[in-house]
Amino acid sequence: MTDRLVISIDAMGGDNAPETVIAGVKLAHEKYPDVFFLLYGDEARIEALAEQNGLDKQAYRVYHTTQVIKADEKPSAAVRYGRESSMWKAIYAVRTGEASAVVSAGNTGALMAMSKICLGTMAGVDRPAIAAIMPTSVQGQDVVALDLGANAECNATNLVEFAIMGSVFYRIVYGLQKPSVGLLNIGSEESKGREEIKEAANILKANAEKINYYGFVEGFDIGAGTTHVVVSDGFSGNVALKAIEGTAKMIKRIFGQQMKKSLLAYLGMIFLFPTLLRLKKRVDPRRYNGAMFLGLNGISVKSHGGADELGYFHAVETAINLVQNDFCEKIRVELEEVIFSSEDSFEY
Amino acid sequence: MTDRLVISIDAMGGDNAPETVIAGVKLAHEKYPDVFFLLYGDEARIEALAEQNGLDKQAYRVYHTTQVIKADEKPSAAVRYGRESSMWKAIYAVRTGEASAVVSAGNTGALMAMSKICLGTMAGVDRPAIAAIMPTSVQGQDVVALDLGANAECNATNLVEFAIMGSVFYRIVYGLQKPSVGLLNIGSEESKGREEIKEAANILKANAEKINYYGFVEGFDIGAGTTHVVVSDGFSGNVALKAIEGTAKMIKRIFGQQMKKSLLAYLGMIFLFPTLLRLKKRVDPRRYNGAMFLGLNGISVKSHGGADELGYFHAVETAINLVQNDFCEKIRVELEEVIFSSEDSFEY
Fold first, then answer.
1. How far is B110 from A189, CA to CA, in rounded Å?
2. Are the CB atoms for B146 and B181 separated by under 8 Å?
């Protein structure tokens, strides 16, 4: 069809779809003019929005779909009855090789379930996980956290797999040979927490040559950058992720409220503006938008449902970067090495 | 003994005990000169620190203890073998009526287990919970979150009890007749989350005249003040609490790093100083230090293990306020009304 890198887009997924989606794609096109987009959704609306946004006609093709996966749709139902949806069709384009990655801001559970069925799970992986990159207070160091919501309940084996995948992911993205991995718990002492976490800790400790296991970490260790990778079940991880985002927003809002009480403060803001801008840039959740499904045979990126166009752009950028870095093949090779290398296999 | 309000203190519990503890007690004495403190721990060290801090000899009595509950001690072991510890003795003073409340910055699990055994659980409560007050971005509105770590795993009945206790607690502290209660989940849709949460939601919905159930809330809703009370199992609650604290610290640290890059910013800070001070005061974790064990026949307050003297002071202040407001009796009466009122009992 074309030699260009192709990204398929679920144009109907997300709180303000397709408006935000198309505006985000336009931003992505500006930065990556060579990327071609397959847009799945309501053709008339998408074409109108593409024109409104001034999106180059050579940069996309629309595939008309009529079905939309709702935010409250059960994943199992979505998989069974959603085969005509924009989400399924967009994922399917990755399966057929028409696209190299899919991006959706729709129902996370449905996207996970559909991606899993449509793309398949990598050999050696029992449960894929959602991973995201977050800022830390250590300069130049981000943290990769997983699982962030794919698996509400996990056993020890799942947690160990997440640790391996997170570690490999960090190595690929940041080039760090042995990233440290922490298990999220409610205390750093060995006696604390749920049984499956203690069991996972024992397995990771027994495989020290293969994985740089740090120990238990707590909620505050994520932002402190105590470890490069933080592993948790999908429930706690999701709660932590959203609590972190919520706190940043809360502080911003309270700061704004206090500002209003002081004219002097406005004067101060003029001087502080470049500093606050840098701060904002470093922790801007939009910059960190784009969660990845690790453990699938294909790249599927989830944007926040409520992301604005800049946030959506970053999710698309994440997908492009993963494709350009041949992420799937690298993680497959690395996983094989860690889990299946014959002399010294991973001991459960 | 004395007519004064008496607080018993586990002087040996906490990361920097007894130093921080005694310094915190000194601050509490300055604000509440009529309160009398029973200090449990190493007599020689406590007396030396009391003198160093200039703590009035009329404000305290030291009870010498030699055993200290370690941070990594298992709660079950602490309860069995820890009866000579500063923690146990301090709690025991509440049981005998010598003190009206106990404060400890030591091992949370041990403090919970000991408080439960020593003080007993209120009628109608199966599992006591740790609750704390946190700031929100809604002006003048705090949020009460529970459980924050007492119960790593919870069933639907536990969650419902937490909802009732949190609601009653909020009413007592803030005088709000029908505080709204949210269940912490990984999505607001009804199909999301773990089974026990969905079950708890159904029970709460069926008791709408007794409790103002809002629905599912997510991590960001805590700081947004979406509901007055947020209920979760102790694992997710603990992760959320620490993630929130960690994020505030991270932003502060990154702000400091960015400040160093700009001389102008320092100039701006002079004007902004009062505003930042107000912001800090509103979200200062030390101000919100002092978690309560809800559901016991007695007041037991947990300070952060790493709290400084000001943080410890606030934990002591929380204990004093709860005593002055006759908290235990009020919550007992309220719980009885909600759970046991004959015509219209709480339906499980």
1. 13
2. no
Cβ neighbors of B171 (< 8 A, separation 6 or more) are B177, B178, B179, B334
Please tell me whether residue A308 adopts helix, strand or coil conformation. coil
Q: Which residues contact A176 (CB under 8 A, 6 or more apart)?
A: A170, A228
A274–B282 CB contact, under 8 Å: no
Question: A59: which DSSP letter?
Answer: G
Question: Which B residues in the span 249-288 are in contact with A, Cβ-Cβ below 8 Å?
Answer: 249-251, 253-255, 257-259, 261-262, 264-265, 267-276, 278-279, 282-283
User: How far apart are the C-alpha atoms of A280 and A255, rounded to whole Å?
Assistant: 13
What was the ipTM of the complex prediction?
0.80
Would you say the C-alpha torsion A113, A115, A118, A119 has a positive or negative sign? negative
Identify whether the C-beta of residue B317 lies closer than 8 Å to the C-beta of residue B141: no
Identify which of A284, A257, A189 has the alpha carbon closest to the alpha carbon of residue B281.
Answer: A257
Three-state secondary-structure class, residue A152: coil
The sign of the CA dihedral B31, B33, B35, B40 is positive
Q: What is the pLDDT of residue B249?
A: 85
Q: What is the pLDDT of residue B344?
A: 54
Smallest CA-to-CA distance from B130 within B320, B290, B315, B341 is with: B290
User: Quick one: tokens of B215?
Assistant: 């629905």
pLDDT in tens, B4-27: 899 999 999 999 999 999 999 999
Portion of chain A with pLDDT greater than 70, in percent: 95
Burial of B79 (0-12, 13-18, 19+ CB in 10 A): buried
Which residue in this structure is represented by tokens 């053709």? A43
CA atoms within 13 A on the CB side of B142: 21
Cα separation, B260 vs B272, in Å, equals 16
The two three-digit tokens of residue B151, written as one number: 């119960």
The helix/strand/coil state of A39 is strand
Closest CA of chain A from B33, distance in Å: 33
Residues A131 and A241: their CA atoms lie apart, in Å, by 11
pTM, entire model: 0.83
Closest CA of chain B from A303, distance in Å: 15
